[in-house]
Every structure is written in structure tokens, then in C-alpha cells.
Specification:
The protein is built from 17 helices and 10 strands. With 459 residues, the protein is α/β, with parallel strands linked by helices. Helix 16 packs across helix 17.
Length: 459
């Protein structure tokens, strides 16, 4: 392993590319030690809202600052999640474009990358709190299930704040405070704060005197005394302070920029219509770099972890929730009528594993095949957007499905050959298991390292 504490990334990258060209074997790296980010993780707006399975900010930071030096470069992340790559792009003086089906992820990404005058935000915060207390009781009609997660008064206060935010006319400011409000939701609920997906804390499942029962009861007692308005105020003021840090951006055009966020990475070739970019189209051969970390096959449910936020922000109608979940790449829920029809990918090594998995668990086999076929669609789309000789930086890991090694890295390398990508370098970075990368359905392993592939578009 390189003594990366004593060399900068450019020097490391130069040597790594040379060694990989000779040996063709992955090179170990520790991005946390190699790239020093001041005040990380509370760097600028990175932790403006909690989100599961974030990509390590050091990785986009390293490659953007090494490969791009023009202030009008475009950086695309087709799986942008909460906008880590997008923010690092802006900090690197580049214009980002993202895609994610999760409305909460879209909201985080937009707010995280948009500077708003702090005096204006502070003034609006006072107006929200003043106006919220004049609102009538509000229990989110039509969403009876949310009452399971909140004390009545907490839900009432959330509803009043939501109404006050909804009265704001400026979309940028409304989004900013809607995100702060979203951060409050789980904090004042009965959901276990240690678990990414909503799980209601239940002290009765433990025997009297059990340590976990004592902890749970103590936590629930504290919850009774939480003031929703104070929580909203505290989170908002912290986020205003974080947002103010974006004033350091040298390219002032970026301060006015509204990051385009598509809702499907398979359709970035379509025109985007939203309240930020009324008519935005990304031309072919316009992107200077793609940096992304695709979702993992069979990972826990990205949408489920955001479900309370989605319900109480009303970013999606209840009737559209099932449709949203069915649009997630890497999902593990399919109708029986779907997965009883075996499908294969055309990737010989992958299909051998998928066939074996399918014979044991048809649902899991179908899930794996569908995952790779949908990734093929994504790369078919985004490869057209990337300029010739520019780079795709891919961050992913292998995992285990029903005791079978699922070599995602190898399969994606195979897919990218179809779109004239040359693999220039493979890096292996050891990680602590990320938010969603936990043991799943008793058939999957914990992911302990990430594979970073550097691809160059040829032809």
C-alpha cells in the first residue's frame, strides 16, 4: 500500500495509473488519509439533513480537483442521493447535474447546493415561527398512519409549521425550510433514532430491568419534553450558518445556480421540467465528468428510510408511493407475476450466478437480473452525455446474495465495454459499513470495502 500520508493525490494518481497499466491489479488507497477535508463531516452543507449510505466526500473532491480545471465544467451524478458529489462539484467551481427518484434526496440536493442570503433566511425563519402559531390544528388528513409515530401535540405542531412554510412564495426559501422541517420529523417521533428505517421504540419487548428497556423508557420520557418549535428553530439556524459558508465560492455564477435534478437516471436524455429549471435539457457530449455511486443490489429500502419524511412533507401523494418504490434501482420487492418469469442479462458470468440464485429463491434471482438490466439502461443514457476522452468515476462494492458472491464490479465493467469505456484504474478503499449496508434477510454479507473504477470514454 502507498504511503499516502506523505504524497498528494495527484502524485499518487500518477503513480497508480502507471502501476495499474503495468500490472492490471487494483491498488489499495485510503481516501480519508490521502485527502484532508477541513471540518469534515460538517463541511459546508454536507450534513444539512440526515441521509443513508452517503458516498465519501473525499472521493469526488479528489477527482474533481485533479481532472477538471475549467470553471464551466459540467459534472453529472446519475445516482446523486443527498448531493455529496453535487456539492463537491460546486466547491470545485463546476456546474453539477444530478438524478434520483427519491423526492427527499432531490430536496436535499437542491438545498445543499443553493446559496441564499442569510439575512433573508433569518427574517423568514422568524416569520414562519410567528405564523405557525396562528394556524389551526392540523393532523395531516388522509394520513391516519402517521398518528402511530407521534404524540398528538407533536403532530399538531409539525402540521402548523408545515402550513407556515407552505405559505412562502419563493421556491428556494420554501425548499430550505421544508428541509429543516424534514430534519425535525424523526427527532420528535417515536421512531428509534439508531435505525435508518422507521422502527417504533417499544420498551415492552424487553423484560423489566433490562438495559435496553431502561434506555428506551428514558428516551421516550425525554421525547415528551421536546418542543417542536425549538427543534425547528435550532436546526434552521444551524443550516443557515452552513449555507452562509457557500459564499466562498469563487465562481459567482454558481451562487445563482439551481442544480438540475432528474427523477430517473435512465431518462436524463429527456427535458426536465420543475420549479427550479422550467425547461432544462442536457445535450449529448456536454458533460466533463461523471462521478457516481450506484445503489446496491438487494440493499435495504431507500424509500422506506425516508417514508415519514415523504408523508409529512407531502412531497409525494400517498397514492403514488407504490409507484415510487417500483422505480428504485436495486429494489427487492417485485410482484410474483414478475419474478416467476426468469430473466437473464447477457453477461455470462452474471447469468450463471443469477441462474443458481433463481433456482433457490426466484425473487432474489429476478432482483439481481433486473438490477443489472436497469444499470445497463442508465449507462446507455449517461454515456451519451459524456464528452469523448473524459472520465467516469464509479464507486461500488460487491456483496453476497443468498450465499452467492455477486461481483457487481466485474459485471459493471462488462456493461461499460458496450459503451466504449476503457478501464484505466481500479482502487480499493476499506470502509466502515455504510448506512444501508447491513446484513439483509439473513442471506447477505456486510460490505467492508469500496471499489473505485476510473473509466475513460473512447470513440
Amino acid at each position: 500500500m502507498y504511503n499516502i500520508n506523505q504524497i498528494n493525490f495527484n502524485y499518487f494518481l500518477h503513480n497508480a495509473l502507471y502501476e495499474y497499466d503495468k500490472q492490471g491489479t487494483p491498488i489499495n488507497v485510503d481516501f480519508r488519509k490521502l485527502i484532508k477535508l477541513k471540518n469534515y463531516p460538517d463541511r459546508y452543507t454536507h450534513i444539512i439533513h440526515p441521509y443513508t449510505a452517503k458516498v465519501l466526500a473525499h472521493i469526488p473532491n479528489a477527482f474533481i480537483n485533479s481532472f477538471l480545471n475549467d470553471q464551466y465544467n459540467l459534472v453529472l451524478d446519475p445516482f446523486c442521493g443527498s448531493g455529496t458529489v453535487l456539492l463537491e462539484s460546486i466547491l470545485g467551481q463546476c456546474f453539477p447535474i444530478g438524478a434520483d427518484p427519491n423526492p427527499i434526496a432531490q430536496l436535499i440536493s437542491k438545498v445543499k447546493t443553493k446559496y441564499i442570503d442569510e439575512a433573508l433566511l433569518n427574517s423568514e425563519l422568524n416569520n414562519i415561527l410567528k405564523n405557525a402559531k396562528t394556524k389551526k390544528n392540523h393532523f395531516f388528513g388522509g394520513l391516519e398512519e402517521v398518528k402511530y409515530w407521534f404524540a398528538k401535540q407533536k403532530l399538531n405542531d409539525l402540521g402548523k409549521i408545515f402550513q407556515a412554510i407552505n405559505d412562502i412564495e419563493d421556491q428556494n426559501i420554501k425548499n430550505f425550510f421544508l428541509l429543516a422541517y424534514s430534519s425535525v420529523i424523526k427527532k420528535v417521533s417515536f421512531a428509534d433514532p439508531r435505525i435508518s428505517v422507521p422502527v417504533k421504540m417499544n420498551p415492552h419487548k424487553y423484560k423489566d430491568g433490562h438495559q435496553e428497556k431502561i434506555k428506551t423508557l428514558n428516551y421516550l420520557r425525554k421525547q415528551k419534553h421536546i418542543d417542536v418549535y425549538n427543534e425547528f428553530y435550532n436546526i434552521s439556524t444551524k443550516n443557515i450558518f452552513r449555507n452562509a459558508k457557500l459564499k466562498v465560492i469563487l465562481n459567482k455564477e454558481l451562487l445563482m445556480y439551481n442544480t438540475p435534478i432528474y427523477d430517473d437516471a435512465r431518462h436524463i436524455d429527456s427535458t426536465l421540467y420543475d420549479s427550479y429549471n422550467y425547461d432544462y435539457y442536457l445535450p449529448d457530449n456536454s458533460v466533463d465528468m461523471i462521478i457516481t455511486s450506484p445503489p446496491y443490489v438487494g440493499s435495504q429500502k431507500y424509500i422506506r428510510s425516508s417514508s415519514l419524511n415523504l408523508y409529512l412533507t407531502k412531497l409525494i401523494e400517498k397514492k403514488d408511493f407504490a409507484s415510487l418504490k417500483s422505480n428504485i434501482i436495486g429494489r427487492d420487492q417485485f410482484k410474483k407475476s414478475e419474478y416467476l418469469n426468469k430473466i437473464l442479462t447477457g453477461i455470462t458470468e452474471a447469468d450463471e450466478i443469477i441462474d443458481s440464485i433463481y433456482n433457490m429463491y426466484p425473487l432474489r434471482g429476478y432482483m439481481c437480473a433486473k438490477y443489472l438490466l436497469e444499470l445497463y439502461e442508465v449507462f446507455n443514457c449517461v454515456s451519451k452525455k459524456l464528452k469523448k476522452n473524459k472520465y467516469l468515476i464509479l464507486v461500488i462494492s460487491n456483496n453476497t446474495i443468498v450465499n452467492h458472491n455477486f461481483d457487481t464490479c466485474k459485471y459493471i465493467k462488462n456493461i461499460l465495454k458496450n459503451f466504449n469505456f476503457k478501464l484505466c484504474l481500479e482502487l480499493i478503499d476499506n470502509i466502515n459499513s455504510r448506512g444501508l449496508m447491513t446484513k439483509r434477510n439473513k442471506t447477505a454479507s456486510i460490505i467492508t470495502n469500496e471499489w473505485v473504477g476510473i473509466f475513460q470514454k473512447k470513440g
